[in-house]
């Protein structure tokens, strides 16, 4: 089978590999669509210790059921289009038993700890499979995982209709966060980015106002616009020092900041201002299985508009697509590859 293999920083090659054989409780899928994730771009650049070459990455995917190894679990019929929760946990620790498998200390990711879906076939655990409703096609289904990431952050934000919401970063996660936050019908839904095309996509997704982050007084302007709400929820989908600091400032008194972008390892924050303003700060990582299923339902309901932000290409264009997302990020913030 054809597979896109990460060989080292900035090096991806197409290789011919054996089609894997499903073991106990495993299912073989023929991959139909697989998205390139921001975390994989960090991996591609060699900045992510989870991704050790040689590795087939790819954790945002859909595929058809081909065959199943020995198992007592129920598996959808052969040919059924499914997606997969790629975050695998031990199922046994205090966190797993409390319904928080996403913070399990033993968690493993398909496409990092085991081969992922940038290939014609991928092996997945039967229990991670989620069948797609008929209204979700292979491409849209590949948005389930990033939408679940966005949905988890929005859920932690506990957004109400009286709140203001600011989403910092209108890449694919920010855009999907806007789609998810919109469901709570907040009084303001503001997107901030430096890319005009991405801000336009944010408007289409439901942002009520957009700001160019390079404007000098962008935080003041956002606070001015939010002067009629008592609570603001800011989601930082970027994770750079400047966006984290801006997010805390934009939250204002009694605000809440959800950090989900992973970029800079450390960020100095003005904690005295956080204390005096009673700003709540919360990290957000991945998703729970119920949130993943909810993301699939939202896609089936057509809650995520497609547009130029979403681009589909052949797997053979994988290497150039990674390079493009790093060197010349353009209108397309999510590139989906088809093996
Ligand atoms: Zn991802
Ligand atoms: Zn666990």
Please tell me about this protein's structure.
29% of the residues lie in helices and 25% in strands. It has 339 residues and is of the alpha/beta class. It folds into two domains: 177 residues, Medium-chain alcohol dehydrogenases, catalytic domain (Quinone Oxidoreductase, Chain A, domain 1, Alpha-Beta Complex), CATH 3.90.180.10; 134 residues, Rossmann fold, CATH 3.40.50.720. Helix 9 links the parallel strand 14 and strand 15. Helix 4 packs across helix 5 and helix 5 packs parallel to helix 6. The longest helix has 14 residues. It is globular, with a radius of gyration of 20 Å. The protein binds zinc ion (2 copies). The site of one zinc ion has 8 residues, from helix 2.
Short description, anyone?
This protein has 339 residues and is of the alpha/beta class. It is built from 11 helices and 17 strands.
Give the helices and strands, then pairings.
Blueprint (H helix, E strand, L loop, with lengths): L1 E7 L2 E6 L9 E10 L2 H7 L15 E9 L12 E4 L2 E2 L5 H4 L10 E2 L11 E5 L3 E3 L6 H4 L2 H14 L6 E5 L3 H11 L5 E6 L2 H10 L3 E4 L5 H8 L6 E5 L4 H11 L4 E4 L11 H6 L3 E4 L5 H12 L9 E5 L3 H10 L6 E5 L1
Parallel strand pairs: 10-11, 10-13, 11-12, 13-14, 14-15, 16-17
Antiparallel strand pairs: 1-2, 3-4, 3-8, 3-17, 4-5, 5-9, 6-7
Helix pairs in contact: 4-5, 4-10, 5-6, 7-8
The structure holds zinc ion (2 copies).
One zinc ion binds next to helix 2.
């Amino acid at each position: 089978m054809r597979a896109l293999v990460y060989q080292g920083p900035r090096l991806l090659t197409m290789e011919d590999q054996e089609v894997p054989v499903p073991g106990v409780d495993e299912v073989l899928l023929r991959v139909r669509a697989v998205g390139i994730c921001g975390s994989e771009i960090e991996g591609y650049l060699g900045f992510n210790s989870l991704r050790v070459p040689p590795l087939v990455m790819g954790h945002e995917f859909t595929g058809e059921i081909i065959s199943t190894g020995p198992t007592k679990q129920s598996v959808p019929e052969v040919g059924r289009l499914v997606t997969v929760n790629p975050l695998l946990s031990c199922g046994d620790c205090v966190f797993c038993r409390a319904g928080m498998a996403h913070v399990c200390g033993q968690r493993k990711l398909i496409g990092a700890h085991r081969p992922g879906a940038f290939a014609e076939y991928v092996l997945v655990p039967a229990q991670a499979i989620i069948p797609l409703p008929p209204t979700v096609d292979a491409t849209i289904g590949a948005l389930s995982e990033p939408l679940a990431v966005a949905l988890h952050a929005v859920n932690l934000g506990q957004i109400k209709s009286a709140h203001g919401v600011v989403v910092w970063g209108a890449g694919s996660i920010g855009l999907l966060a806007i789609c998810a936050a919109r469901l709570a019908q907040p009084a303001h839904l503001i997107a901030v980015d430096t890319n005009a095309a991405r801000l336009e996509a944010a408007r289409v997704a439901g942002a009520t106002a957009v700001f160019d982050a390079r404007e000098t007084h962008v935080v003041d302007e956002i606070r001015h616009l939010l002067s009629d709400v008592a609570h603001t929820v800011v989601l930082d989908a970027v994770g750079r020092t400047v966006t984290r600091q801006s997010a805390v400032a934009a939250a204002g008194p009694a605000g809440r900041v959800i950090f989900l972008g992973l970029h800079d390892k450390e960020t100095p924050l003005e904690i005295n201002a956080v204390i005096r303003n009673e700003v709540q700060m919360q990290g957000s990582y991945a998703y729970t299985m119920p949130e993943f299923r909810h993301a699939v339902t939202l896609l089936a309901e057509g809650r995520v508009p497609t547009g130029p932000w979403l681009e589909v290409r052949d797997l053979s264009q994988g290497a150039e697509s990674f390079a493009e997302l790093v060197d010349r990020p353009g209108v397309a913030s999510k590139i989906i590859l088809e093996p």
